């Protein structure tokens, strides 16, 4: 019996031990599964953080090779994986601890790219495609289970495409009713409604595609015909959709369906910048009663960097806002905090700052606010990233290329413009004459920012003050534009301004026989609050005379143009409110002469990104009166307009010009 009892006890003990072992194993497995789930959540969360931080660095124009370092991913912080032989550093991976060590957790991540940027096509647009590989891991060392880890990876990619992908593109509503015969070659894209038509005697021919976001000629599909808004005077006729100029005109209903397409989503013409987020973080602030908040809880002035969405779109051409007097230093750019009040710039979102041509420019010409001893306003010159050291006295040939604040009458604005001229040919000669080691030559990157920050002229009558003047900048002698970088290699040429911008005469039409690109046109772009073209025969002395004294001659501009317009406003019955007509796409580039019998040609791209802030007068009438009393209300259409998209702008745009950036990430993988 004793042996039997002992045998039973042994059997029961073995069963208990087996049960305990099973329970312990189940518990260990359950704990391990729970820890792995937590590690997965930790690693996945860290992957999300890494993705959005990576986006921010890309949008801030951080050099691609420097992105990992900007995210703190340095080799000195590298966390060795649990099994060190599973990963061998290959010169592109670096690791960073991103979690704390509470409860033994260590989270880490890496980011790298071993591939050079490649040219590819995204959404039918040519651009630069760059791939990154991201890895994250979370590891915890348990006293019983040992090391428990979870590893995931994703491939990030972004496509950087030139904003100049279309012959015409609009951020807002696009209105197009030709006042003269016009042919457009290249795609057209509108981030809203598109209204397009032509007058019977002045036919519009569309060779390529039209993209719209909301409606096309008032209808939600492309099968509708062309019509003006309901109740508007002067009906328009369908344009001719004709992709082959040498062939017979095709059947139009079917052809329109082929050439007109609805966008799935709006184009982002701000390089990936979220306007909604920028307004939330840096836009106008309000009290609970709806009034504007001007001071914070401590009485400090709150900077209003972006009072409207249009301010964000205009940031491409505008300099950073000056800080109002009394602004707390926490709200200002730290680099300016030693400057006196009135000279400090507002601190702003790094992503928005990266879109500003003012910040991108290798050369900045700024008209002084203080006249010299002769009453003239000298120009200040800044090079590279520095905006504090005036180089004008050290570079007299560069300063001589700029003539400031000459009075010229603008017949559309009906005011005198203080015009600052940049002699493009003289600028190119002066830069090219500098030594290759000269700091200005080193800083020159093909981007020139030219602006006059002086207050606009005003006139006061009784209690009423009106804007009686404008500030403008003008490009002269620009048939041959600078093509070179500091080493003499092709670069392109871009001029941007916060003011109204004028182009006098043929622009960028001559090739440089001594250039490496001797057999190719230079690529150029111009950007301004409004853009006006003055023909080869323009004479400033006749600007105040009748239109019969301002007779144009055929003129060609070869450049991408980015500018603003004055949106048309409509009444309740759909008719245009008097004095608000934008003039449509055909008048986005403004003209101020009698162009009858002449041809205006634009080879490049034409884009509207914002509403004009300073040059915001509506288009004038088209009457036949040429007297000195009424001629300033007239607009004379060319006999022919030619707008042809330069496809090279999509492949290799001028340096510094805006881009449209899209981001993608692939499926998770384990490593």
Which residues form runs of ≥5 with pLDDT under 50? 75-92, 227-233, 623-633
Report the C-alpha radius of gyration, rounded. Answer: 31 Å
> Can you count the beta strands?
31
How many separate domains? 4
Number of helices: 11
Q: What coarse outline follows from CA principal-axis ratios?
A: globular
Largest sheet, described in full?
15 strands, mixed
Strand residue content? 25-35%
Q: Which whole number gives the mean pLDDT?
A: 83
What helical percentage do the residues reach? 10-25%
Please provide a written account of the structure:
This protein is of the alpha/beta class and 671 residues long. It folds into 4 domains: 26-162 and 661-665, no CATH class; 168-262, no CATH class; 271-315 and 320-355, no CATH class; 363-638, no CATH class. Helix content is 17%, strand content 28%. It contains 11 helices and 31 strands. The protein is globular. 39% of the residues are buried.
How would you briefly describe this protein structure?
The chain is α/β, with parallel strands linked by helices. It has four domains: 26-162 and 661-665, no CATH class; 168-262, no CATH class; 271-315 and 320-355, no CATH class; 363-638, no CATH class.
Structure keywords:
11 helices, 15-stranded mixed sheet, 6-stranded antiparallel sheet, single chain, globular, 671 residues, alpha/beta
